[in-house]
Write a structure and sequence with these properties.
Organism: Alcanivorax quisquiliarum
Radius of gyration: 17 Å
Order of helices and strands: EEEHEEEEHE
Protein name: Thioesterase family protein
Distance between the termini: 21 Å
Shape: globular
Structural class: alpha+beta
Pfam families: 4HBT_2 (PF13279)
Number of helices: 2
Oligomer: single chain
């Protein structure tokens, strides 16, 4: 089984968050256990499922779950980060993506998508996704994408400072473990 880099909670200097003083080890493949409540903000987007989204067994086709990541990512970029998607400055490239299917969904359900970020660096960050049944609150899917910003020649480029500041508002406070 292949795992991403392990990460730990970062304890702020003034320890204003209600977290343990001893770092706790995390792995992005264990996204359900991450401390989402420590993010300053969480973006929420509603998704409606229809018959067109279902398969022969009348449940939502599994590929739609991955599609929801793209829908929520684009809505978050457009509504919260930059309405022009930074088209004049460069492009966002998805370097890696992962999705876990937790529970079936069915046509005519409303799915609540939640977006946070993690491991924000000068030119890259992870987007964390959680999807739940809006009526029951039950988790149905989740995962993450690693995003890299590049210039128009596809060379990795630094994100503008105002964009980094916005992306950090949605960050779950984690850092890569060394050693």
């Amino acid at each position: 089984m292949r795992h991403n880099a392990a990460v730990t909670q970062t304890v702020p200097a003034e320890n204003t968050w209600p977290i343990a003083k001893v770092p706790v080890e995390y792995d992005l493949t264990e996204w359900r256990e991450l401390p989402f409540e420590l993010a300053e903000r969480t973006y929420t987007h509603s998704i409606e499922t229809y018959l067109k989204d279902s398969n022969a067994y009348a449940n939502t086709y599994f590929a739609r779950y991955f599609e929801w990541q793209g829908v929520c990512r684009e809505a978050w970029f457009f509504k919260c980060v930059s309405p022009d998607m930074l088209q004049d400055k460069g492009v966002f490239i998805t370097k890696a993506a992962h999705n876990d299917y937790v529970q079936e969904t069915f046509p005519f359900q409303t799915i609540r998508g939640q977006v946070n970020t993690a491991l924000v660096k000068k030119a890259s960050f992870y987007i964390l996704f959680r999807f739940s049944n809006a009526e029951t609150g039950e988790l149905v899917s989740g995962g993450y994408q690693q995003i890299v910003f590049a210039d128009h020649e596809r060379r990795i480029a630094r994100l503008p400072e105002e964009v980094l500041a916005t992306v950090r508002r949605y960050e779950v406070p984690l850092s890569v473990m060394r050693g």
